[in-house]
Amino acid sequence: MNPSLVSSKARALTPYTPGEQPQDKSYIKLNTNENPYPPPPGVQELLRDYNADMLRLYPDPTSKRLREEIARHYNVDIQEVFTGNGSDEVLSFVFYAFFDPKNGPVLFPTHTYSFYPVYCTYYGLESLKIPMEEDFSINLDSFNRIEEFSGAIFPNPNAPTGIALSRDQIFDFLRSVRKDRVYVIDEAYVDFGAETCSTLIKDFPNVVVVHTLSKSRSLAGLRLGFALGNPDLIKTLFTVKDSFNSYPLSRLSQELAIKALEDEDYFSGMREKVISTREKTVHKLTERGWTVLPSKANFVFASAPSLSGHKIYTDLKQKGILVRFFNHDGIKEYVRITIGTEEQMDTFISTLDALYSK
Ligand SMILES: *Cc1c(COP(=O)(O)O)cnc(C)c1O
Fold first, then answer.
1. Is the pLDDT reported for residue 24 higher than 80?
2. How far is the CA of 33 from the centre of ligand 1 (A)?
3. Is residue 327 exposed (0-12), middle (13-18) or buried (19+ Cβ within 10 Å)?
């Protein structure tokens, strides 16, 4: 191809590599942190009854009804809610809106969601990895040692470690930080046992909390994420969105998301099942001599004595089970295992036994 056909910006990109979504055969998928349980029944009913004629019309570009529903759930005002096509899109707008390349690098922990450095490249931002504790927990004090930076982001619980900080730890940290920089807390996994910082946006006008319906609400295929923050920050996110795509959320997505949020009972039941299966899995892995980091997410990050993460990943794949391996220095011994159904996790454990017990 003639290289002049591609912009220098596009040539400089390094895309994110998502976990495998194989189409060739059916695996037990424990690699992309999807929820093993179906979305709430109301979602299925709405799909069955949906009047397709509505799709002639453009959706509400401001997702007003959905944002009202989110605001109610998180005890915030509608002006404090921004919605997007998956939290990946929301995060992309957040990086564009709040991190200024001229102020220095974006700060995030050494081992974290590997999309963050990808957004940095996309928007011409430098990044700086903040060292973690020996036990892989996030060290917030280390963020404060950096003087020149454009903003900071970390997931809570962190990925791929699953380790959570408490709301108090985050509150104390936020009291100590620069008021002229935005701090983003990515709560993709918070519903599986960590404490949400959603209402801290009332105390701190420089804090954005990002959520997704992909994990705890079983709707990875819907693509629905949202950000909570001070009304001025949220207004800026709308400006960015409306300079990119006025209608990132379809009519159907908006309505399905409202349905999904309404069913609190189904949600807590499902969440408890995942947590209980996680605890059993941790127990069984530990019994077998594995090291398992303390997880408040719907996955565990674990390593086996004298096996590399890559070997575990390949052996399991051959047996029809997908887990996630990260070829990054410092975590190559580990695999990230999504919590599936009880039955899937039983198969996972018996497969490990067949592979590795002598
Ligand atoms: C899964 C994940 C996301 C992205 O979620 P989507 O809403 O599906 O785009 C964001 N942040 C972290 C840390 C995640 O693990």
1. no
2. 9
3. exposed
Please name the residues in contact with 134: beta carbons below 8 A apart, sequence gap of 6 or more: none
Measure 186 CA to ligand 1 centroid, in angstroms.
Answer: 8
pTM recorded for the entire structure: 0.96
CA-closest candidate to residue 96, choices 221, 176, 14, 208 = 208
Six-digit token pair at 143?
A: 């963020």
Across the beta sheet with 299-303, the strand order is 291-292, 299-303, 334-338, 324-325
Query: Quick one: pLDDT at residue 264?
Result: 94
Residue 216 burial (CB < 10 Å; 0-12/13-18/19+)?
Answer: buried
Within 177-263, residue ranges assigned H as helices are 231-241, 251-262
Span 242-295, pLDDT tens digits: 999 999 999 999 999 999 999 999 999 999 999 999 999 999 999 999 999 999
Structural Rg of the chain based on CA atoms: 21
In short, whether 39's Cβ falls inside 6 Å of ligand 1 is no
Q: Which residues of 226-245 are buried (b: 16+ CB within 10 A; e: fewer)?
A: bbbbbeebbebbeebbeeee
pLDDT band at 358 (very low <50, low <70, confident <90, very high): low
Query: Residue 154 above 70 pLDDT?
Result: yes
What is the reported pLDDT for 251? Answer: 97
Residue-wise pLDDT tens digits, 179-231: 999 999 999 999 999 999 999 999 999 999 999 999 999 999 999 999 999 99
DSSP E strands in 200-284: the ranges are 207-212, 225-228
Q: Which two tokens stand for residue 296?
A: 């408040």
Query: What per-residue string of b and e applies to 22-32 under the rule 16 or more CB within 10 Å gives b?
Result: eeeeebbbbbb
Spacing, Cα 294 to ligand 1 middle (Å) = 20
What is the predicted pLDDT for the residue at 69? 98
Ligand 1 atom showing the smallest separation from residue 32 Cα: 1
Q: What is the dihedral of CA 195, 201, 202, 203, to 10 degrees?
A: 80
Question: Could you give the CA distance from residue 237 to residue 50 in angstroms, rounded to a whole number?
Answer: 30
Q: ∠ at Cα 212 (34, 341), nearest 5°?
A: 25
